[in-house]
Amino acid sequence: MKSALIFALAALGLLAFANYRKHGFKVQTVEQPQERLRRPRAQRMRSRHRNQDGLLDLNSATLFELRTLSGVDNDHAERIIENRPYLTKLDLVARRIIPDAAYEAIKHSITVVHAA
Q1: pTM greater than 0.85 (yes/no)
Q2: Torsional sign, CA 18, 19, 20, 21
Q3: Which of 6, 14, 52, 93 has its CB surrounded by the most CB atoms within 10 Å?
Q4: Domain extents for the chain?
Q5: pLDDT tens track for 13-38
């Protein structure tokens, strides 16, 4: 008799659980804060040629990104793109692509990443 009662209660519990899952009742959970917030797509696209320090890569930057640098006009940006690839950022001055004054203005904002 006792085992029949335990069996009946177990079956009732399983039916209740199956009905609970069938109707899609969901337990609300507390969301954990994300460690790193996702940036909007436009912001990611603007910074895709920058490294983690925020330096712009001369070998992959677009014309628009190069023109955002202070001291670089449209002509300088086009010449930077035409004379790729660069081994170091000093190649801008060594190859006479931009003047020394323009290089002094942007040297702390640029870097060169070599393709692997």
Answers
A1: no
A2: positive
A3: 93
A4: 41-111
A5: 777 777 766 665 555 555 655 555 56
